[in-house]
Amino acid sequence: MTFGKLLKSLRNEKGVSIKQLAAELGLNYTYISKLENSKVNPSSKVISKFSDYFNYSSDELMLAADKIPKDILEILKNNPQETVIYLRRRFGGRVTE
Q1: Closest listed residue to residue 42, CA positions, set 29, 23, 55, 61
Q2: Tens of pLDDT along 22-55?
Q3: What's 3-66's CATH class?
Q4: From residue 12, how far is each of 5, 6, 9, 40, 71 by CA, in Å?
């Protein structure tokens, strides 16, 4: 699911309008609309605001926004071959060792 679709789903589940959400988080409502329509990408700071507001995993929001959490990126950088092999074995895909 894209970040925009996830954000819209979370907002609708909570029953808040884009304007209400914007006011509560100190963001521009047109910016939130652009996020929901995948016209712009959120910063890590904005993702953190949404995570806190919706009580939703910041890691999942980051991944939906095509961003890799810093701790996961370090694991990938420090153990590239082992990580790729593990992920492919665990979740399917071509394994080359």
Answers
A1: 61
A2: 999 999 999 999 999 999 999 999 999 999 999 9
A3: mainly alpha
A4: 10, 10, 5, 20, 30
